[in-house]
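Lab notes, practical 5.
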Amino acid sequence: MRLWLLRHGEAEPRAEGDEFRPLTAKGRDEVRRSAARLLGKGIDAIYASPYVRAQQTAELVKEVLAYKEPIVTLPWITPDDDVSKAIDHLDSLSGRNILLATHNPFVSDLAGFLVYGNRQQPLSMATGSLAVLEGELPIAGAMELIELFHP
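Output from the prediction step:
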C-alpha cells in the first residue's frame, strides 16, 4: 500500500467555525505545488476530511491530476480525531495508492504512528506538506516514510 498524506494548505484564520475556514491564495499555491509531485503516481482514490479547507485541498489535487473519480469524504480524519481508530478504518479503504487530505495534529500524529509505532514522534507537517508512506499494511510501525515534501 502507498499512502499519501496531505495537510491542507494555509487557511483563513477566522470563519463561523473551524470547519468552515477556506484556503487562502497562499494555501491554494501550496497545495498545487504538492499536487504536482503526484503527477504520474497512479492515485487510486482521494479521500478528504469534511472541513472546507480539506475539501478545497482535495479538489485542487483532483484538478492538477485531471483525476476523474469523485472525492470521498471521511468524517474520521478531522483535526482532533483519534489516530488509533483511524488506523482501524484505513485497511478498509478502496485502492492501494490512496491520498488523504486532512489536518494537523491528526496528520502528523497518524504519519508518526504508522512509521514509528508510537504517538511520541509525530511527523512535522506544515501547511501543504505531503508525506509518502509505503508498507504492506497500514498498521503502527509497519510503514516506511518514502518522502516528505514541504512546499
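Observations recorded by the TA: The chain has one domain: 2-149. The CA atoms of residues 79 and 103 lie 5 Å apart.
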